[in-house]
């Protein structure tokens, strides 16, 4: 390749990235028409989607988690379906089932009727109100992007994303998600109460004769292009080292005093993969073409908090997962400043 060819290639990459930046800016602006005061939640949810993964939104009822998912489906131009998880929900209610047909001659045959999982954006509402058996019906789909019914493989649409909402486990009628399923979520996103200004805007904007509506900004094909761009973004060696250092320091037995004393079991390699992808997506989201250590620090909580468990002693001392992660990322903050 000649120097001229290299220059042309770089120009093409920059042009593609700049178009993606504009699309992301338009998505943010459109979403902000109806979602108020949840900038961090919107950002992290979009980062999960731009990275090609799934997100778990955790918060008490009434914080617009479901509305956010429906809004993003419209703005991103994705086909969507919703499953309301309840204690009596069965796996077939998610995946689909085989029914028996009979033709005019009396010949019988089985036909597979697809369930709501066959969509581009699946809203799994209050996912922890269903039994663990039903929750596990999502495992294969979230990891392998296909399901197997009576030995037959059925591929899911592309892109395929699960945005699940979860009520705090302290609430009545909830089941903890299995650790294997939690690990399939790229990010666990905490949805907090809105601040005073945002809640005031909610009151004014949502109780009148009409509410703002959003339109489509991109479509599924364009989303796939942006996801491909995210995976092609370069990651500096310093950021790779920061990710490895952080993930490994969260595992007991690796020489970390915090992990040895506070963590029962730590994150696996999938946590590092999640940080690599979402750090790239966050850089693009904020108008940069390569991630920095600051991106790793910002995403440590959403990536790690559902992939670790505190020891009994830590819980007894009132230590939270946020406390532990804050201490783990402290060295990275100093290195990014240096």
Descriptive notes:
- By secondary structure, the protein is of the alpha/beta class.
- It has a domain at 235-338: Orthogonal Bundle (Helicase, Ruva Protein, domain 3).
- Helix content is 49%, strand content 15%.
- The protein has 15 helices and eleven strands.
- It has helices spanning 3-31, 39-50, 65-75, 91-95, 132-135, 139-144, 179-182, 196-206, 220-232, 237-249, 257-262, 269-285, 293-304, 312-316, 321-337; strands at 55-58, 80-84, 96-102, 108-114, 121-125, 146-149, 152-155, 161-166, 187-190, 263-265, 309-310.
- It has a five-stranded parallel β-sheet with strand order 2-5-8-1-9.
- α12 (269-285) packs across α13.
- InterPro entries: AAA+_ATPase, ATPase_AAA-3, CbbQ/NirQ/NorQ/GpvN, ChlI/MoxR_AAA_lid, P-loop_NTPase.
- This is MoxR family ATPase.
- Belongs to the MoxR family.
Radius of gyration: 22 Å
For the record, give the distance between the C-alpha atoms at the N and C termini, rounded to a whole number: 37 Å
- The CATH superfamily title of the domain at 235-338: Magnesium chelatase subunit I, C-Terminal domain
**Which CATH C-level class of the domain at 235-338 is it?**
Mainly Alpha
> For the report, how would you describe the main beta sheet?
5 strands, parallel
How many individual helices? Answer: 15
Instruction: Report the strand count.
Output: 11
Shape call: globular
CATH topology of the domain at 235-338: Helicase, Ruva Protein, domain 3
Residue share in β-strands: 15-25%
Class inferred from helices and paired strands: alpha/beta
Strand order of the largest sheet: 2-5-8-1-9
> Considering DSSP H and I runs of 4 or more, what fraction of the residues is helical?
40-55%
InterPro entries: AAA+_ATPase, ATPase_AAA-3, CbbQ/NirQ/NorQ/GpvN, ChlI/MoxR_AAA_lid, P-loop_NTPase
Keywords: ATP-binding, Nucleotide-binding
Family: Belongs to the MoxR family.
GO molecular function, one term: ATP hydrolysis activity
């Amino acid at each position: 390749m000649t120097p001229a060819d290299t220059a042309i290639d770089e120009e093409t990459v920059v042009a593609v990235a700049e178009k993606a930046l504009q699309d992301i800016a338009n998505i943010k602006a459109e979403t902000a028409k109806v979602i108020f005061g949840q900038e961090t939640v919107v950002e992290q949810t979009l980062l999960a989607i731009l990275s090609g993964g799934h997100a778990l939104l955790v918060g008490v009822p009434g914080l617009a988690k479901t509305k956010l998912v429906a809004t993003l489906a419209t703005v991103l131009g994705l086909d969507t379906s919703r499953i309301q998880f309840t204690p009596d929900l069965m796996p077939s209610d998610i995946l689909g089932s085989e029914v028996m047909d009979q033709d005019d001659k009396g010949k019988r045959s089985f036909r597979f009727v697809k369930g709501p999982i066959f969509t581009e954006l699946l809203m799994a509402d209050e996912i922890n109100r269903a039994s663990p058996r039903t929750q596990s019906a999502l495992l294969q789909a979230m990891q392998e992007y296909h399901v197997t019914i009576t030995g037959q493989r059925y591929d899911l649409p592309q892109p395929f994303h699960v945005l699940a909402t979860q009520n705090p486990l302290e609430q009545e009628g909830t089941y903890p998600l299995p650790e294997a399923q939690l690990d399939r979520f790229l990010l666990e996103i905490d949805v907090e109460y809105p601040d005073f200004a945002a809640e005031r805007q909610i009151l004014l904007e949502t109780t009148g004769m009409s509410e703002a509506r959003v339109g489509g900004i991109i479509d599924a094909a364009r989303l796939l292009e942006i996801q491909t761009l995210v995976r092609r973004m370069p990651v500096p060696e310093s950021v790779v080292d920061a990710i490895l250092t952080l993930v490994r320091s969260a595992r007991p037995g690796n020489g970390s005093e915090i992990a040895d004393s506070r963590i029962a079991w730590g994150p696996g390699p999938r946590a590092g993969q999640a940080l690599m992808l979402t750090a790239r997506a966050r850089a693009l989201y904020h108008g940069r073409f390569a991630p920095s250590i600051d991106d790793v620090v910002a995403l440590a909580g959403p990536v790690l908090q559902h992939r670790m468990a505190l020891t009994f002693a830590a819980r007894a001392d009132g230590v939270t997962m946020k406390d532990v992660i804050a201490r783990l990322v402290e060295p990275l903050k100093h290195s990014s400043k240096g």
